[in-house]
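Need Response regulator's 3D structure for a figure. Predict it.
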Amino acid sequence: MRIVIAEDNALLREGMVLLLTTNGHEVVATCAAGPEVLPALRTHRPDAAVLDVRLPPTFRDEGLRAAVQARSELPELPILVLSQYVEQAYAAELLAQGARGIGYLLKDRVGRVEQFLEALERIADGGTALDPEVVTEIVSRKAAARPLRSLTPREHEVLEMMAQGLANAAIAERLVVTERAVSKHIRGVFDKLGLPPEGGSVHRRVLAVLAYLDAAAPASPASPAR
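Structure prediction for Response regulator:
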């Protein structure tokens, strides 16, 4: 996989380069500031991009802005966004363009090599990879909505795992239940959220759930100062 990395922290940036090349990928360009990102993506047309949300010169939302613009120009480009903290407004803005091939992870996941590589490969395949903490934040913000209030605690758990991009087998393994039980809970989620359960792949199912979660999201506020 050919990858572009945008990260201002030199130690983390070079660490990701080493990690990715060691695992058989090619890092075709690295960027340390926001203005460098789009030119690198346009020039190299990578298979995926890993972008920090906050980059120089202002350390506010340069990485996010680059990601949104990149998806506008290169709609099929898989992008994995890294953030130091859960910034729900940023996640919602990125997902507003469509969640296919989008990942949003907290930076401490990079140190968990298998999780980081799995997320990168998942978005490269057109899937979704949302950090569990980001999903929890989104779900908690929507918890007051009537359809979500109607979900059982177990359906809430299944919904969060679906939004992370997990397939039924992976959800069953985490919850220590059968896949048949997971399918039943998913049907309940779809029914209560008004989402049709039939006709689609796992990714389409995830996109439908994410679309629902994002539908009532408020407009993104002005970017906060660092």
